[in-house]
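I had to read the description of the data format several times before I understood it. For illustration, here is how one protein appears when written out as sequence plus structure tokens:
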Amino acid sequence: MSDLEISDRGAVRVLTINRPERRNALSATTADELCAAVQDAGRTAEVGALVLRGAGGHFSSGGDAHAILGVIDDDEDAAPIRLMQSFHRLVQAIWDCELPVVAAVSGVVYGGAFNLALSCDLIYASHDARFCQVFIERGVAPDVGGAYLLPRVVGLHKAKELMMLAGEIDARQAADLGLVNGILPDADAVHAHALEVAAQLAAKPRFAVSLTKRLLNSSTTGTLQSSLELEAITQATILRSPSARAGFRDFLDRGRRTPGTATPQTD
């Protein structure tokens, strides 16, 4: 039985982690299935955005303890590395995907699941969402890209507090820290809102959205000069695209059709 349920709502593909009996705990199999699904969606012209959620009212409790203990007890030295590589491929697939990925989180958002959500482009949470960088409580270090992703959002010292003290925060605290884009009443409402936002994103020029995501994701990994160089290459490429031509022509046409206004200026 698959750990993942895949469905399409128009141009939005919904990926649902489907292990409610384990609060959607993440195993290597789950990560591999999610990674393949994200990559497949990126190659599908009819899909314009993704929603990532969990079944049964919880996003995910993080790494599957049974699977992790199996790795701990495995005599093969490479077993822990293989486990980490599965999760790293997933995070990289979401980060590199040309489609925007919207996380709809509710209930527990613990450990690796917290960091999986951070790899997405937008996060919406229900009022009952509970976030925790629980790793130290389990005697391990943060994984699933958390040490890279969390400081980008909350700053270095707050990230250290969240990871070293491993305290739980609620949806309102997460919003105050900039970890989520909005709070909805319950799991059904957050799913519906994530679908609505994803549909809006899917309706926008795909190439422009993809390159905007790439620019933003790379914005803090180098110098201003490297960011400006990437921006120049990106913009020079997209300015020749049909979507840019159509967008600017429509902008000018709307100005000409509005009586009593000056011809609009480009940005």
Summary: The longest strand covers residues 4-9. The mean pLDDT is 90.
